[in-house]
């Protein structure tokens, strides 16, 4: 970590906080070389124009009259348009996930009273499979926008959001909870306002893990893209144009040419996204590593270098983003006074009045929330009355079968992701080489390849049960790998150099440095992988392709079948049982490991 400078007086402290107590004329303006417009700026302008055009085309599709069922054209000429539609849905879901992550994760990490409710609620949300969100989300949004496709499009975005948000939130929560003690003390000495602590301490400290978990979120979004673009509710079917629908239609019709074309298009889109977005972010986030000296072989990105040389980006930053940031900072400074600052009596009266109004609003909100919960519980009881004790017994046995498959998938994934993730994370050279490969492989929807896997594995002992374990593994091992990579990349280079200088043996290096350093990230990865495995059971234990349905005994299979048949009572019972099992695992195992990580394995 770079040397920490503690301000000695109010003037310096306010300068650190973004304030200004020194006269402006005493500060010489920082002269920056003027950049000339060139081909780089022309390329950036063309990209912006293309993005605006895609938004306009998508908006015309969103506002068109509602068309629940459409004909998916399997000709290669439609793939660019379908890819654009799917990419836009993924991007909107990611933006929504990022906003949710910062708000929810920050409150859960900094508010002890809220933490007791929000973390278990997050466990519940990540344990609910995407198909269990499907009926309520689709019916509510389609009913809200009955005359246009906006409801269907928003439903697809929300469903993709449910496959992206939870692991990002857990990653940010873990980073905010395990901040180094010296940085916490420095923020207290500098008297940073809450919003300054959020932007200058929490967000930078979480950036490396959040970026790698964002990659995993996109991979999870691609995994469930087929389910989110083809929404089936009993006899009703809603379909959206996109790569997911294209791959699903090609798999159902057994069109191998179209299936390969769709996968090639998806891989090309993932590679472009990695080169133009993720790799620049990884190179930019290297500045947030906690270390005493800079690493000689740091991650690089040609795109990031180009953006830094762009006159257009510099002008936008100087004339648009910085003024907006200054205005927002001024507003936040007025809303959040310095910690410990004295207040006038009039201000106290105003705060008391605010507290009174806020208290009334809080009571009203709690009453409305309580009424909503009671109404929901009543309808839940009415639905669960239709589930017999025999069916509950079958659900429990099915949960046991799915638990065994989940455990096997996690152990197999853990066996290879730790050595591979550490090798990639500790070597910037291998990180640059393998990051695109890992991103592509992790993002390929295993559900599109499942017919091929099923044909290859159905003759082996275990049949579909073995195929279900493999599909779970393909959908969840990346949660562990990406978090392990992030943990290895966050190890300060001075600690790595110390192990080299003192000739620490390989096993002792693993025991005293690598495993303790990646342990918090590993816990986050296994927690999200566990929840992801239970979610993946819904699509791995019950598969429909080429007009046929194949299933194996398990809780995911029962949930998927009940959703396809419109049996909402059984769907609710299976979802509640799955959520209960996942929460019990999280409370009894992962929460204790989180506490161990917070107590013993914090750098600093």
From TrEMBL:
<feature type="transmembrane region" description="Helical">
    <location>
        <begin position="37"/>
        <end position="62"/>
    </location>
</feature>
<feature type="transmembrane region" description="Helical">
    <location>
        <begin position="117"/>
        <end position="142"/>
    </location>
</feature>
<keyword id="KW-0813">Transport</keyword>
<feature type="transmembrane region" description="Helical">
    <location>
        <begin position="512"/>
        <end position="534"/>
    </location>
</feature>
<feature type="region of interest" description="Disordered">
    <location>
        <begin position="13"/>
        <end position="33"/>
    </location>
</feature>
<feature type="transmembrane region" description="Helical">
    <location>
        <begin position="154"/>
        <end position="173"/>
    </location>
</feature>
<feature type="transmembrane region" description="Helical">
    <location>
        <begin position="466"/>
        <end position="491"/>
    </location>
</feature>
<feature type="transmembrane region" description="Helical">
    <location>
        <begin position="359"/>
        <end position="383"/>
    </location>
</feature>
<keyword id="KW-0812">Transmembrane</keyword>
<feature type="transmembrane region" description="Helical">
    <location>
        <begin position="438"/>
        <end position="460"/>
    </location>
</feature>
<dbReference type="Pfam" id="PF00528">
    <property type="entry name" value="BPD_transp_1"/>
</dbReference>
<dbReference type="InterPro" id="IPR035906">
    <property type="entry name" value="MetI-like_sf"/>
</dbReference>
<keyword id="KW-1133">Transmembrane helix</keyword>
<feature type="transmembrane region" description="Helical">
    <location>
        <begin position="256"/>
        <end position="278"/>
    </location>
</feature>
<feature type="transmembrane region" description="Helical">
    <location>
        <begin position="570"/>
        <end position="590"/>
    </location>
</feature>
<feature type="transmembrane region" description="Helical">
    <location>
        <begin position="403"/>
        <end position="426"/>
    </location>
</feature>
<feature type="domain" description="ABC transmembrane type-1">
    <location>
        <begin position="399"/>
        <end position="589"/>
    </location>
</feature>
<feature type="transmembrane region" description="Helical">
    <location>
        <begin position="201"/>
        <end position="225"/>
    </location>
</feature>
<feature type="transmembrane region" description="Helical">
    <location>
        <begin position="82"/>
        <end position="105"/>
    </location>
</feature>
<keyword id="KW-0472">Membrane</keyword>
<dbReference type="InterPro" id="IPR000515">
    <property type="entry name" value="MetI-like"/>
</dbReference>
<feature type="domain" description="ABC transmembrane type-1">
    <location>
        <begin position="83"/>
        <end position="277"/>
    </location>
</feature>
<protein>
    <submittedName>
        <fullName>ABC transporter permease</fullName>
    </submittedName>
</protein>
<comment type="similarity">
    <text>Belongs to the binding-protein-dependent transport system permease family.</text>
</comment>
């Amino acid at each position: 970590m770079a040397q920490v400078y503690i301000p000695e007086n109010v003037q310096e402290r306010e300068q650190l906080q973004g304030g200004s107590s020194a006269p402006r004329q005493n500060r010489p303006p920082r002269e920056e070389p003027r950049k000339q417009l060139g081909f780089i700026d022309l390329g950036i302008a063309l990209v912006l124009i293309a993005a605006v055009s895609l938004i306009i085309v998508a908006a015309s599709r969103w506002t068109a009259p509602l068309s629940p069922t459409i004909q998916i054209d399997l000709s290669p000429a439609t793939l660019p348009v379908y890819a654009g539609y799917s990419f836009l849905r993924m991007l909107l879901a990611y933006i929504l996930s990022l906003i949710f992550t910062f708000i929810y994760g920050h409150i859960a990490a900094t508010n002890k009273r809220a933490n007791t409710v929000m973390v278990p609620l997050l466990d519940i949300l990540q344990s609910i499979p995407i198909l269990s969100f499907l009926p309520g989300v689709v019916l509510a949004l389609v009913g809200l926008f009955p005359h246009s496709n906006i409801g269907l499009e928003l439903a697809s975005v929300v469903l993709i959001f449910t496959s992206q948000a939870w692991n990002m939130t857990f990653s940010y929560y873990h980073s905010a909870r395990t901040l180094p003690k010296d940085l916490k003390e420095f923020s207290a000495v500098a008297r940073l306002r809450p919003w300054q602590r959020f932007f200058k301490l929490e967000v930078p400290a979480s950036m490396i893990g959040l970026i790698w978990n964002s990659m995993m979120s996109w991979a999870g979004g691609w995994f469930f893209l087929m389910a989110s673009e083809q929404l089936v509710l009993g006899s009703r079917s809603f379909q959206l144009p996109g790569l997911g629908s294209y791959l699903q239609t090609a798999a159902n019709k057994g069109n191998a040419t179209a299936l390969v074309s769709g996968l090639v298009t998806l891989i090309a889109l993932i590679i472009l996204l990695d080169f133009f977005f993720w790799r620049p972010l990884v190179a930019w986030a290297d500045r947030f590593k906690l270390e005493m000296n800079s690493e000689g072989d740091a991650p690089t990105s040609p795109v990031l270098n180009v953006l830094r040389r762009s006159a257009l980006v510099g002008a936008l930053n100087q004339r648009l983003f910085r003024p907006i940031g200054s205005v927002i900072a001024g507003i936040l400074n007025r809303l959040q006074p310095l910690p410990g600052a004295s207040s006038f009596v009039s201000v106290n009266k105003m705060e008391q009045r605010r507290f009174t109004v806020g208290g009334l609003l809080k009571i009203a909100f709690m009453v409305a929330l309580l009424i909503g919960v009671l109404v929901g519980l009543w309808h839940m009881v009415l639905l669960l009355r239709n589930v017999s004790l025999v069916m509950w017994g079958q659900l429990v046995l099915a949960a046991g079968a799915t638990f065994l498959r989940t455990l096997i998938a996690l152990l197999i994934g853990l066996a290879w992701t730790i050595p591979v993730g550490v090798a990639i994370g500790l070597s910037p050279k291998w990180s640059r080489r393998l990051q695109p490969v890992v991103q592509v492989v992790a993002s390929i929807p295993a559900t599109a390849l499942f017919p091929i896997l099923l044909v290859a594995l159905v003759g082996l002992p275990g049949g579909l049960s073995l195929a279900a374990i493999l599909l779970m593994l393909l959908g969840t091992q990346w949660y562990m790998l990406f978090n392990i990579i992030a943990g290895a990349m966050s190890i300060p280079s001075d600690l790595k150099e110390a192990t080299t200088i003192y000739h620490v043996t390989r096993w002792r290096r693993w025991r005293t440095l690598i495993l303790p350093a990646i342990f918090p990230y590993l816990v986050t990865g296994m927690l999200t992988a566990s929840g992801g495995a239970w979610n993946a059971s819904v699509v791995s234990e019950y598969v429909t392709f080429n007009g046929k349905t194949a299933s194996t005994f398990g809780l995911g299979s029962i949930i998927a079948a009940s959703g396809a048949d419109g049996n909402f009572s059984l769907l609710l019972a299976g979802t509640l049982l799955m959520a209960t099992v996942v929460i019990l695992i999280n409370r009894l195992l992962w929460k204790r490991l989180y506490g161990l990580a917070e107590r013993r394995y914090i750098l600093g």
